[in-house]
Write a structure and sequence with these properties.
20 helices; 5-stranded antiparallel β-sheet; 476 residues; binds adenosine-5'-triphosphate; binds magnesium ion; Arc Repressor Mutant, subunit A; 43% helix; Rossmann fold
């Protein structure tokens, strides 16, 4: 059902209001107020009735409704003193008095016309191609965080599954965002301004310089219950953080979900560190039951990917410990597991396990549709390494000599020979932690730090390439 009001057409189902076919942008509450009046044309609709219908309660200031009535009048080019559409019944409410014709069927859409406020094709959430393995608990945490925060950043090591988790979370939350989920992949972008341009283009705003563009974007997003998913912010994290902060401050209902290898660092940012996929529970103690192995998300991930190229591959009592060991050696990192699975087309599990010593040459793949930096493990780590300062790169290399992790005292001792005092060591280590390359395990009497095995081997190769290995080892 839609309503023809003279030159105007109100289509509540598609949240569209047009004049002679041209869309007039109305924020959702104004459209809802308008619909209340038009759908009861000729009848007095009291203020309380409107408040109940549109806000769900009466605890809003009178000015909120007055403002929507003024905007609705403006949309009709109506005059409050000599109304042709919306009449004020003083002390009681409002009445729609304009022309009205009920339309049972919707009018065909004209080319180029937007049916409702939603992301255009270029910014639409990609459809799910493969199901997400494991991550039930992480998704629940992420969804829960959105109940109390407007901006959440999923942080973690490259290839850990941040993008996949964020996409799934956004799909699950879509119903809560009537103004759409808007998706932007920032991996190919070089600056925050480039993202702002992409956002403005998606909103059909003509491009100008950043400050002017922001002042045009904000009113369009004001009051919109939309979710912006800004994916792979890594290289431009702080610029994006600045923009997100301004978007949040300038709008009432906008939400942002970001993924990045390091925090975006803005006030109000809620971080969620994404852990690896869980390994079989007793893997580290060497007492593996078949059911523990089978049910572990990391194993499920490896098996699912193996089966996609070898449908007859089965987990058996004989191969299960080897499969579990492969998952452990790859730290439950989804990208590494995915790349390892591709090798099962040629090798037995035992052979695949042996080849992990050469993981950077071994773990490559060329699956169509895969992000270029995910085609091999080396490319992915090169990307993460490029996010580090030269001091962080150097310390990471030196830290790779600790096979079992280290404490702050050990790091301090090591870094002393690089000329760093404790404050400096804390600063650099903090940088490595926030860029998801060093993991912290709280413990007594002091936390311990460690590198994922894949990161450690990569860093060790870098250390060797810089000829500093002997110097570093002399200090342990
Ligand atoms: N839970 C999962 N189930 C199935 N596949 C997964 C899962 N997590 C990640 N993957 C796969 O692992 C690969 C890496 O995942 P993803 O791109 O989400 O990582 P990322 O943390 O965003 O990496 P980067 O930091 O490089 O952007 C992808 O090919 C993805 O399909
Ligand atoms: Mg990603």
């Amino acid at each position: 059902m839609s309503y023809r009001c003279g030159d105007f057409h109100l289509d509540p189902a598609n949240r569209r209001f047009t004049r002679q076919g041209a869309a007039i942008a109305l924020e959702p509450k104004t459209l809802a107020v308008l619909t209340q009046l038009v759908s009861r044309a000729g009848t007095l609709v009291t203020r309380d009735e409107i408040l109940d219908a549109v806000w769900g309660h009466r605890h809003v200031t009178p000015s909120a409704l007055n403002r929507r009535i003024a905007l609705a009048r403006q949309a009709f080019s109506d005059d409050a003193d000599e109304p042709k559409y919306i009449q004020t019944v003083h002390g009681a409410g409002y009445r729609y008095i304009g022309p009205l014709e009920l339309m049972e069927r919707q009018e065909p859409t004209l080319p180029g016309q937007t049916l409702r406020f939603e992301a255009p094709l270029s910014a639409r959430l990609p459809a799910r191609v493969e199901s997400l393995i494991g991550r039930k608990h992480d998704l629940a945490t992420l969804t829960e965080l959105f109940r109390s925060h407007r901006a959440v950043t999923v942080v973690g090591t490259g290839g850990m599954g941040k993008t996949q988790c964020a996409l799934e979370c956004a799909r699950n939350l879509a119903a809560a965002f009537p103004d759409g989920v808007w998706f932007f992949d920032l991996a190919p972008m070089q600056s925050g301004a480039e993202w702002l341009h992409a956002l403005a283009a998606a909103l059909a705003i003509p491009l100008t310089d950043v400050p002017e563009l922001l002042s045009k974007v904000l009113p369009v997003l004001q009051n919109r219950r939309a979710l912006l998913l800004v994916d792979n912010c890594d290289r431009i994290a702080s610029e994006v953080g600045e923009l997100v902060s301004r978007l949040l401050r300038g709008t009432d209902a906008l939400h942002v979900l970001a993924t990045s290898q390091k925090p975006l660092n803005f006030a109000g940012e809620q971080l969620m560190w994404l852990p690896p996929l869980a390994l079989p529970q007793d893997a580290r103690r060497g007492r593996l039951e078949m059911c523990d192995i089978e049910s572990a998300p990391a194993v499920q991930m490896l098996l699912t990917r193996i089966k996609s190229i070898q449908p007859h591959f089965n987990l058996t009592a004989a191969n299960a410990p080897t499969v579990a060991e492969i998952c452990r050696r790859l730290d439950g990192m989804p990208l590494a597991l995915e790349l390892a699975a591709a090798r099962f087309a040629l090798l037995s599990p035992e052979q695949a396990l042996q080849r992990l010593d050469h993981r950077f040459r071994f773990l490559t793949g060329d699956t169509a549709g895969r992000d270029p930096r995910h085609r091999n493990l080396l490319a992915m780590l090169d990307w993460s390494y490029s996010l580090l300062s030269s001091e962080e790169q150097q310390l990471l290399g030196w830290l790779s000599i600790f096979v079992q992790g280290w404490t702050i005292d050990a790091a301090n001792h090591l870094a002393g020979s690089l000329g760093h005092d404790l404050e400096k060591v804390l600063e650099i280590l903090g940088g490595l932690v926030s860029k998801s390359l060093v993991a912290v395990k709280p413990g007594l009497p002091a936390p311990r730090y460690h590198l994922l095995e894949t990161v450690r081997e990569y860093a060790l190769e870098r250390l060797r390439a810089s000829d500093e290995e002997t110097r570093a080892r002399a200090h342990t």
